[in-house]
Amino acid sequence: MKHQEPQAADGPTEPGWYRRKLVWLLWVATFFEGYDTVVISLVLALILGDLGGSEAEAGGIRAVVGVGSVLGFFLAAQADRSVGAGSS
């Protein structure tokens, strides 16, 4: 008869719990970042066409969105250091 290890409950005490939650959150964030990129690429031309905007204005809007994404990344990294798992 083989000895069976007790099964750990799926929660904060299980060793892989944090990693699974982190991977899930990263997947969701990556999905929405890609979704934003696709939507702005498809809709921006239509909006600027209706409002009489130029390609240069479209590039400026896209640049502002890109800078905001990078800024959000650095703010999230800082928040993780001060509040998240990195603070001990």
The total of helices stands at 2
Overall form: elongated
**Biggest sheet descriptor:** none
Helix and strand string, N-terminal first? HH
Q: Give the termini distance in whole angstroms.
A: 44 Å
Number of strands: 0
What class, by secondary structure content?
mainly alpha
**Helix percentage:** over 70%
Compute the number of structural domains.
Answer: 1
The Cα radius of gyration reads 22 Å
> Uncertain regions: pLDDT < 50 for 5+ in a row?
none
Q: Which percent range describes the beta-strand content?
A: under 5%
Assembly type: single chain
Overall mean pLDDT: 80
Topology:
Layout: H1 17-51, H2 55-82
List keywords for this structure.
88 residues; mainly alpha; 2 helices
Provide a descriptive summary of the structure in words.
This protein has 88 residues and is mainly α. The chain has one domain. 72% of the residues lie in helices and 0% in strands. The protein is built from two helices and no strands. The chain is elongated and about 75 Å long. The mean pLDDT is 80.
Provide a brief overview of the structure:
This protein has 88 residues and is mainly alpha-helical.
